[in-house]
Amino acid sequence: MTETKEAQDVVLRLSGITKRFGALTANDAISFSLARGEVVALLGENGAGKTTLMNILFGHYTADEGTVEVFGQPLPPGLPGAALAAGVGMVHQHFTLADNMTVLENILLGTAPLWRPGLGRGGARQRVQQLSRDFGLAVHPDARVATLSVGERQRVEILKALYREARILILDEPTAVLTPQESDALFETLRKAVAQGLSVIFISHKLHEVTAVSSRVLVLRHGRLVGEVATAETDRHQLAELMVGAEITPPAPAEARPGATLLKLEKVSTPARGNRTGLRGIDLELKAGQILGLAGVSGNGQGALADLLSGLETPSAGTMELTGETVTSWSPRDALKARIGRIPEDRHTTGTIADFTLTENAVLERYAQPPIATSGWMDWSAARRAAEQVIETYDVRCPGPETRIRLLSGGNMQKLILGRVLEAQPMIILANQPVRGLDIGAVTYVQERLIAARDAGAAVLLISEDLDEVLTLSDVVRVICEGRLSPEFPRGSKTPAELGQWMAGQGFDDAA
Amino acid sequence: MRLDPIAAPSPARTLGLPALALGATVLVAMGLALIAGADPLATLGLIARGAAGSKFALLETLNRATPLIFTGLAISVAFRARLWNIGAEAQLYAGALVTVVIGTQLGLPGPLALPLMALGAVLAGALVLLGPVLLKTRLGVDEVVTTLLLNFIMALFISYLLEGPLKDPMGMGWPKSPALPRDARLPRIVEGLRLHWGFGLALLSALAVWVMQTRTTLGYEIRATGLNAEAARFAGIPVGRVLVKTALISGGLAALAGFSEVAGLKGNLTADLSPGFGYTGIVVAMLALLHPLGVVVSALFVAGVFVGADSMSRAAGVPTYIADILLATALLFMVLAILLTKVRVVRG
Question: Which GO terms describe its molecular function (chain A) (predicted)?
């Protein structure tokens, strides 16, 4: 590519962006440019600086050094909205739609006066429909957003950006909430957008998507741009190494030797609570020495099942058996007594108490038993020893056991929870999104520990929205959809696409 | 402008900011004195001397601090568990009422009567808070509303009793209860000095609460429930039961303020027994950052301001409500100081 051509084609240029938060340099002299009609993937672990960079681009933060140019014009720093006006649109991971309004109203929101209903709506509707057709974003303009699926909502977000004539689209972890089929449809849309001269920044940490959709990959690590490679000239392995700065070997569990059934649910239902789906008459068996992976799009009953096993929820119908005995009284304390180890979905609000020290958090599930406490009196030196044991065995990086846990990174927090669970030698382990948001090093560590626990005879229920993770770890896979469970699929018996169909609700016989 | 959380505040921040808050409070006091036409420095000196300048002044301050330590402890125990007990006033009167009833109606000898009066008071206070906490844990009724409204119910109930069944027949028509017999009163700590054992009991209570919070499983449960009830419930802590236990302790402590005022100082029950000790206890607890030993210090400070302002007002002609303004500004500055130890104000 000649220099003059490149200069013409550049639509976005970031030069020497540096942003410091106290001692932490979140972005360190990051420079890159985006050309017309290309998809650039921005790859990096959590905390690598991707979000900070995008916040600077959108004027939420002011960079300490460096400039942003859009279509050759410098963007005024610290002015939210300037990027939008210049033609940059962003689709956030968490959608920003008004549930009680229609698709069209959501798209028009903020662009047209709402107090003059009907005015210009006809033209707007036509434009939205035109955009829908051009980009393959099928969604009915008059549908209420509340009735849409997650994939459809994402399409509305993209339409919103396109309607505002965005020429640069930024997608933040767009596939995190999609089924494989929905992801494929999204990639198709991106290809159409690029063909029409739009440019796309695709933020992700899923390597196979990055290689599937992008033409160039930028890798961020610890706030620096550590790699810029053409997608055609690289592979997943090299990207993963660039991302973490070390060689990666994904866990490869040996053949499972399933033993006795430790937990058995028969026709169990739980009530729906608010927006949360309940369970609808599910049968489930967890066997010793086996990892059962539960795949599914989020919000399909995973929360209810996790709460049930945690002791927070009781069945409204059906029976629950633990090692062959029917459960009659059920609470978190009963679950702990039954030796169910629980790794909760949200380590910040459920798994730990932020303002408690590591010591206090390490004994959270057994503070009332000897040696931590005898007849109501705490033995803090015993608690401290227990914490030190976890810190040492599970490689929790921290200043010491008296540190408040809110100061730890997500990975170290998760290691403490994992240690707390495994030190109690659980018979059944509920691992709900055990590696979400962790960096690759911590992911591998947590996964290997779970496999080791399986090999030691524990029954593991792995709940994850990441199909790759489920397929890597599970001996048996089941899919949850609208509170129902698919049959058991042994390892390797179903392709991701086939599981995707189950995730979308096809194949269930009571398709009510 | 926005607020950025500070992960690990420096000691300079955690100690310096509250000191700054206190300094700012003093400045406001001097400004008020100036407005009232008095010499600011002399006014401050008069308040200090009035609070602790003589043996009499000091004992008066300690006496005034006693009920505030009890109500401050009651509030701090409850607030730690995020149980918003605004009804210490009602619990105090319940304690005072039972103290008077047991002391005057049963005719027991002193050594037997006093412990029974104290125990009865604690039970009565605990019972007054039990209703609101059960409504909260069972039905989700906001305890701020129920405990606050109970204060008025209790005040009217006491008025009714003092005009009716509990009215002192020898009281020349005044609405007051009969007096406790001599031997059913708390003895003085030092004979001849106006300081009774209620103060000793208050100090002991503070120590006991501190030990409870730091050394027992109940204290651990209370702190866990207050900091993150969801995580506490997940970890198997019976959050509802912990709140009930917290309420019983909190109500009992507030009731001891009533017991100590009646049996130690007044000797009988009147409708104006408490000039808002239950509410001032909230200020005391907040100034102490809910620390039980800190409650003793802040109760002494608050009592000192009241007693000192009383005496200053007689000498300098500055109105006594300067004391209320002082406490209010101290509290506001302290709340701001606490906030600023946790967050930093950042531009942009």
Answer: ATP binding; ATP hydrolysis activity
- B348, A364: Cβ pair inside 8 Å? no
The rounded distance, in Å, linking the Cα atoms of A335 and A2 is 67
Confidence of residue A455 (pLDDT cuts 50, 70, 90): very high
- pLDDT for residue A120: 64
Instruction: Report CB contact under 8 Å: A354, B234.
Output: no
Asked which of A244, A275, A295 is the last residue of a domain, the reply is A244
Last residue within a domain, chosen from A174, A209, A244: A244
Which residue of B234, B338, B344 to mutate against A (max A Cβ within 10 Å)? Answer: B234
Which residue in B217, B233, B342 has the most chain A C-beta atoms within 10 A of its own C-beta, making it the best mutation to test that interface?
A: B217
Backbone torsion region of residue B319, taken as left when φ is above 0, otherwise alpha when ψ lies between -120 and 50, otherwise beta: beta
Q: Please indicate if any CB of chain A lies within 8 Å of the CB of B224.
A: yes
CA nearest neighbour of B32 among B52, B47, B17: B47
Instruction: Let me know whether A108 and A56 are in one domain.
Output: yes
The token duo for B179 is 């007096």
User: Which domain covers residue A298, as residue numbers?
Assistant: 251-339+425-512
Q: Domain of A61: which CATH number?
A: 3.40.50.300
Same structural domain for residues A29 and A132? Answer: yes
Give the gyration radius of chain A's Cα atoms: 25
The structural domains of chain B, with segments of one domain joined by +, span 69-288
Does A425 or A8 have the greater pLDDT score? A425
Mean pLDDT of A383-393: 95
- B200 and B118 in contact (C-beta within 8 Å)? no
| Residue percentage of chain A with pLDDT more than 70 | 94
SS3 assignment, position B165: coil
DSSP state of B183: G
- The answer on A404 and A313 residing in a single domain is no
Amino acid A11 reads V
Q: Which residue has the higher pLDDT, A284 or B39?
A: A284
Rounded mean pLDDT, A488-506: 89
- Specify whether A398 is located in the same domain as A471: no
pLDDT band, residue A3 (cuts 50/70/90): very low
Q: Which of residues 116-135 of B touch A (CB under 8 A)?
A: none
Residue A394 DSSP one-character state: T
**C-alpha R_g of chain B:** 21
Determine, for residues A356 and B227 on separate chains, whether the beta-carbon distance falls below 8 Å: yes
Q: Does position A354 have pLDDT exceeding 80, yes or no?
A: yes
**Is A430 part of any domain?**
yes
Residue A187 contacts residue A41 (beta carbons within 8 Å): no
ipTM for the complex shown: 0.87
How many domains are contained in chain A? Answer: 3
- Which has the closest alpha carbon to A12: A92, A68, A51? A68
* CA dist., res. A376 & res. A379, Å (int): 10
Cα angle value B45/B46/B52 (rounded, 5°): 90
Residue type, A432: N
Q: Is B149 exposed, middle or buried (0-12, 13-18, 19+ CB in 10 A)?
A: middle
Q: Helices B55-80 and B197-215 sit at what angle, rounded to 10 degrees?
A: 30
**Mean pLDDT, chain A, whole residue set:** 87
Residue B337 has pLDDT above 70, yes or no: yes
How many angstroms separate the CA atoms of A2 and A221, rounded? Answer: 30
Q: How far apart are CA A509 and CA B287, in angstroms?
A: 64
Residue A247 confidence (pLDDT): 65
Same domain, A218 and A257: no
Which residue from A419, A483, A426 is spatially nearest to A460, judged by alpha carbons?
A426
Q: Which of A4-13, A137-146, A332-341 has the lowest mean pLDDT?
A: A4-13
Q: Which two tokens stand for residue A236?
A: 């997943």
- Within 10 angstroms of residue B275's Cβ, the number of other Cβ atoms is 10
Please state whether the peptide bond connecting residue A250 to the residue before it is cis, i.e. omega within 30 degrees of 0: no
Does the distance separating the beta carbons of B223 and A356 come in below 8 Å? yes
